[in-house]
Amino acid sequence: MDHLDKLEAQSIYVLREAYREFKPLGMLWSIGKDSTALLWLARKAFFGHVPFDLIHIDTAYKISTMAEYRDRLTQEWKLNMVVGKNEEALRNKITFPDGTADRLTCCKFLKTDALQATLSGKGKRYRFNHATGSYEVDKKTLPYAGIIAGIRADEEGSRSKERYFSPRDIANVWDISEQPPELWNQFNTDFPPGCHIRVHPLLDWTELNVWQYIGREHIPVVPLYFNHGEGKRYRSLGCWPCTSPVESEARTIPEIIEELRVGKFSKIPERSGREQDKEGDGTLETLRREGYM
How far is the C-alpha of 218 from the C-alpha of 70, rounded, in Å? Predict the structure, then answer.
């Protein structure tokens, strides 16, 4: 087995353990490359079928190409797709693009609060109806006991403090000091009642590993990751007011891999184009303690 084979095997093992231990289980799908690689791994783990909900938190400010891609794969792969959003904040225009909130407050309303409401079942969920090809209000309101997320330890500081199986309290608040030890690939899946569990199968992957895997497996990704002649592409995807493209000539996956291995991005953090990450030290960790992805 090469390094990618070992990473794949570990991730599939974690996915199967999560499915065995936590019901109901869901998986966050941001539509980015990491969570799409994770979706591919889930399909491998369960022989082409994903036996749990895919959950997308719609801020209403994602680039339109991302939503089109989400709905296309939902139909092609027969996914159980659930969408949540903070409709009150959007309706009252309490957002950064509306000029009524700073970036981090906007993230809290449109991402953290929307995520908590969706996971707990207190917020409205919209489920994709494959018969009609449209989203409808979901009648299921049971809280998710566990959520799979495609975060990586190398992505930014607070994510390096995560575990493969990471407990939150009933309000999804993350207490870093209460993280269980995970030694010699021994994972704790026995948590007290009232815990909400985040599962991170990609924790030991790097950005380079993800792109190598996408290339090896021919995983379809959003075309925003590639230069289409403008000399720019997106390296990390988020809301359009807070995410900037990077200067790059990479038009293919091998060219992206080369940039990450020895090229211009080999020593530049992946999220350097995400404006909310620049708001000050510890701000993203504060959001994550409160339930942010």
Answer: 17
Predicted model pTM? 0.90
pLDDT in tens, the chain (293 residues): 899 999 999 999 999 999 999 999 999 999 999 999 999 999 999 999 999 999 999 999 999 999 999 999 999 999 999 999 999 999 999 999 999 999 989 999 999 999 999 999 999 999 999 999 999 999 999 999 999 999 998 886 566 678 899 887 766 666 666 677 776 777 878 877 778 899 999 999 999 999 999 999 999 999 999 999 999 999 999 899 999 999 999 999 999 999 999 888 988 888 665 555 555 555 555 555 555 55
For residues 162 and 153, is the Cβ–Cβ distance under 8 A? yes
143 is written with which tokens?
A: 């809280």
> Interior CA angle at 69 toward 143 and 105, to 5°?
55
Question: Can you tell me the distance from the alpha carbon of 108 to that of 113, in angstroms, rounded to the nearest whole number?
Answer: 6
**CATH match of 3-205+279-289 with 3.40.50.620:** yes
Domain residue limits, the chain: 3-205+279-289, 207-277
Identify the CA nearest to 85 among candidates 55, 128, 130. Answer: 55
Query: Residue 72 CB: number of other CB atoms within 10 A?
Result: 11
Say how many C-beta atoms besides its own lie within 10 A of residue 242's C-beta.
20
What region does 96 belong to: left with phi over 0, alpha with psi -120 to 50, or beta?
A: alpha
Chain center to CA of 33:
9
